[in-house]
Amino acid sequence: MPHIIITGASDGIGAEMARQLARTHQDQLKLTLAARSEANLQTVAEQCRAQGAQVWVQPTDVADEAQCRALIATAVQQFGGLNALINNAGVSAHALFEDVSAEDLGWYERLMRINLWGSVWCTHAALPHLKASTGSIVAVSSLAGLVGVPGRTAYSASKFAMAGFFEALRTELKPTGVSVTTAYPGVVDTRIRYHGYNAKGVAAGVSGLKEDGAMTTEECARLILDGMHRRQREVVMTSKGKLGRFVKLIAPGVVENMALAAVKDDMKPH
Fold it and tell me: 45: buried, middle or exposed (CB in 10 Å: 19+, 13-18, 0-12)?
């Protein structure tokens, strides 16, 4: 019976991955769900238990190394062994760099601790268990981790860092049989951008991206899980994302114009 840990599992993509895994495996699954909101985690946990999954809830702030390590230790103690770690926890941000004051710049570091370091700490703690099971690591990055997007200097930096870290780790772990899958979603129909930081480092309440044609959470979760099961190196979502990645190599100016077109006018340089 596989044991899978999902961070950022209280809503959005993380919660949907938990529900899909529970439906697919039914009574043949152990799930550990982690996020800051215990109440929201319990709601998702009950939905998964209704499908027959065994679920452990662990309130966790991944910006805290001790909590990351406690998450892995407690989950393994609860269920024994570990087959997959899905690093999904993250926070968004929309702010032009010139609009961020020197006094407020500290939230860039906070965002990096959540998006990058949370994944690093959880993965480091989980690695011995994943090597023992020749399991899987999933890192949920973003298309903003492949192409820099205006107004997302902090977010893109954190997601580019994730991409580099897990690409190097994938090569290191190749002889061990542990797979590393990095997922690159585009605009997904979740509230993450509304909860993301603005120039002051507080919840923006709005999205800085054009939401037309946003991918559903169900489709995004399905693609990530399919990539994990297939042990794919990368899952690049949307045709524009796949195109932009390669065009960037030969015509970077075109990709920069595509990135500018993806943001609302008030998030463009002034």
Answer: buried
